[in-house]
């Protein structure tokens, strides 16, 4: 019995050691490839289960096109649903469409509208890449994964671990219950400051988002990060 326990502990330590190297590899490759973009990215979060007939799919596709035309790369988790829609819009507009795919057994499959595609085993490495190289975040309706991503971005901005980049929640009806809980429960009980409610905007129209982010980008003193002309954007993606 003691031998079995010892073997179990040795095997677990060995697995953890290799997991550490796999994690380091994902970070190294992610940093290398994402740093080659040379253009600011806007990350779009949302449900992988959103159907093409859903109005939010259409809105995400419209947003992707608008962001690409404004000179931004569009970054998503690389899967179907909202992610596919945003990547599709950027791809169809001739822009840079980044998909950071997570390996899931039953749900996640990479969409076909990516000019730069990376695969991740670990959620934490993937989320770091989506946050580090973005100058804005747009959150469409989604489930637990989307809520996790929203909470992490809000936490990073709230704690000043990330610049106070624009954060948009698309779908007033969808997000109204959560926002009300923020206001009446979190803020009222002192769990967040009243000013934390200003960290994000809730809207139904996406066409103004690219202009809004671009305005913020310039006013924030980051205009030195050049937004290239349309013909140069694919080259800016590191050859993809």
Query: Low-confidence segments, ≥5 residues, pLDDT <50?
Result: 223-240
Q: Quick one: overall form? A: globular
CATH architecture: 3-Layer(aba) Sandwich
End-to-end separation in angstroms reads 55 Å
- CATH fold topology: Rossmann fold
Query: Largest sheet, described in full?
Result: 7 strands, parallel
Structural class: alpha/beta
Compute the number of strand runs: 7
Strand order of the largest sheet: 4-3-2-1-5-6-7
Quickly list its features.
240 residues; alpha/beta; Rossmann fold; seven-stranded parallel sheet; disordered C terminus
Account of the protein in words:
The structure is a single chain. This protein is of the alpha/beta class. The chain has a single domain (2-221), classed as 3-Layer(aba) Sandwich (Rossmann fold), CATH 3.40.50.450. The chain has eight helices and seven strands; from the N terminus they run H-E-H-E-H-E-E-H-E-H-E-H-E-H-H. The chain has a seven-stranded parallel beta sheet, sandwiched between helices. Helix 1 (2-34) runs parallel beside helix 4. The longest helix has 33 residues, at 2-34. The chain is globular, with a radius of gyration of 19 Å. The relative contact order is 0.16. Mean pLDDT is 86; it is low at 223-240.
């Amino acid at each position: 019995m003691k031998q079995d326990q010892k073997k179990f502990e040795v095997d677990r330590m060995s697995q953890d050691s290799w997991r550490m190297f796999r994690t380091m590899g994902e970070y190294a490759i992610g940093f290398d490839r994402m740093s080659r973009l040379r253009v600011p990215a806007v990350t779009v979060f949302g449900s992988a289960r959103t159907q093409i007939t859903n109005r939010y799919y259409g809105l995400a596709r419209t947003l992707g096109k608008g962001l690409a035309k404004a000179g931004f790369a569009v970054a998503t988790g690389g899967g179907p649903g909202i992610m596919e829609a945003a990547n599709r819009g950027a791809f169809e507009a001739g822009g840079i469409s980044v998909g950071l795919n997570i390996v899931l057994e039953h749900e996640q499959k990479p969409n076909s509208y990516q000019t730069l595609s990376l695969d991740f085993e670990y959620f934490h490495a993937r989320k770091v890449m989506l946050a580090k190289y973005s100058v804005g975040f747009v959150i469409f309706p989604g489930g637990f994964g989307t809520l996790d991503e929203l909470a992490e971005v809000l936490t990073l901005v709230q704690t000043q671990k990330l610049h106070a980049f624009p954060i948009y929640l698309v779908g007033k009806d969808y997000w109204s219950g959560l926002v009300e809980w923020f206001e009446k429960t979190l803020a009222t009980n002192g769990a967040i400051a009243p000013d934390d409610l200003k960290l994000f905007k809730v809207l139904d129209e996406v066409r103004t988002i690219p202009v809004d982010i671009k305005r913020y980008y310039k006013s924030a003193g980051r205009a030195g990060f050049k937004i290239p002309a349309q013909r140069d954007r694919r080259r800016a993606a590191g050859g993809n």
